[in-house]
Specification:
Distance between the termini: 46 Å
Number of strands: 4
Largest sheet: 4 strands, antiparallel
Shape: globular
Helix content: 25-40%
Oligomer: single chain
Radius of gyration: 16 Å
């Protein structure tokens, strides 16, 4: 019996992890690994957020970890890239992947939102919190 190839589902250009979580191969494991990278970045830089790679496979999209710092002189919030990671291996990608802006969604999720998402994945029947990150 031949295995039927499922056509690759495109990722919307403005997706977040929450938008594609239903497409992920192993959603809890994927989000847990992303959260590990976010926590490492937050320890190093005091902040962390994640943008989804929108040009790869929806089952395990690459992701970009960033942090935001306020410029001491101008008080502008400036986003800095920490590292990009393979969605399938969770290994760091070469810096050239980061530079291609069209690879990444303009929408990010902060570490709090990703923590809430893994909580919902691990316990889908829990009553939703009044502090939900849904708009």
């Amino acid at each position: 019996m031949a295995t039927k190839r499922v056509p690759q589902k495109a990722i919307a250009a403005d997706s977040t992890i929450a938008d594609v979580v239903g497409e992920l191969d192993k959603p809890v494991e994927y989000v847990r690994r992303v959260l590990e990278k976010l926590e490492r970045c937050r320890r190093a830089h005091g902040d962390a957020q994640v943008r989804l790679g929108v040009r790869g496979r929806s089952e395990c999209p690459n992701y970009l970890i960033e942090y935001v710092r306020e410029n001491a002189k101008t008080h502008e919030r400036v986003t800095h890239q920490d590292a990009a990671y393979s969605g399938s291996t969770h290994r760091e990608l070469a810096p050239r992947h980061i530079e291609e802006a069209r690879n990444w969604s303009p929408e990010e999720m902060n570490i709090t939102a990703v923590s809430a998402l893994i909580g919902r994945l691990r316990n889908p029947n829990a009553p939703s919190s009044r502090f939900s990150d849904e708009d």
